[in-house]
Model the fold of this input.
Amino acid sequence: MGTGEPVVDFSYAPPSTSTTSQYLTPAEAAQHQLQPAVSSLTPPPLPPPEGSSHRRFLVFDELPKIVWNIDPIIKLKFRKYFYPLAVTRLSLGADLDLRRKQLSFKWSWRDRIIGSRLEFADDKISITKRFDIDTRTKLDVRASFDIHSRKTLFSLNIRPFLGILPHDRPPAGLTIRQKVPMDKRMQVEFQGRLSVPEARISNETASAFSLGEGNFVFDLEELNFRFLLQ
Done:
C-alpha cells in the first residue's frame, strides 16, 4: 500500500437488509445479476384450453326415472251379445261411471261379411271398417254422425300394432289399452298413457354436452271392470 499503486476491488455486496457485508467473486456476482432476469422471462403456466379433451360429455346430466300417476276413472261395464244371423253380432251394454255417477247405454252391430262395425255411443252413430296392411299394422276407416249437432265426421287411423296405439299428439306419448281376462265372464280393462323424455340436445361452451331431458311418466287414466252377461 505504500507504493501508491491503485488497487481494484472486485468484491460485490448484494443489497440486503442485514448489516453484515457479504463478498462474492466476480463470477458469482455476474451469475447473481443474471438469475433474476432469466427467471423473469419464464412465462407463467397457461390454463388448460377449453377443447374437446377438456370437455365433459354426458349422455344424461341425470338419469331419467319412471313416474307413476295412479288416479284412474273406474267404470263398470256390462255387455250382452246376440247372434241373430250367423254372420253378424249384436252387442248391447251399459257403462256405469263410479266417479261421476253416470250411466250410459251402448250398442254395436258387427258383420262378418265385409268386416265393418256399426255402433251407437255417446249420441253418435258410426261405422268402422278395418283393413290389415300387414301382420302388425292396421288401418281403420271410420265415418260417424252426431245426432245433436248433425255433423258428419270421416277419419283414418293407422295402428302400428294391437294394444299400443299412437296418441293424437305423438310427442305426448303412447296410449296403451289392454284387457286382462279374470274368468270367462269378467275382464279387467286399463287404459293409460306413457310419456317419454323429450329428445333435446344442448351444448354450451361452459357446460357439459347433454342429450335428453325429463322422466318416463305413466298415467293410468281408466280402470274398467267388464262383465259378460249370459
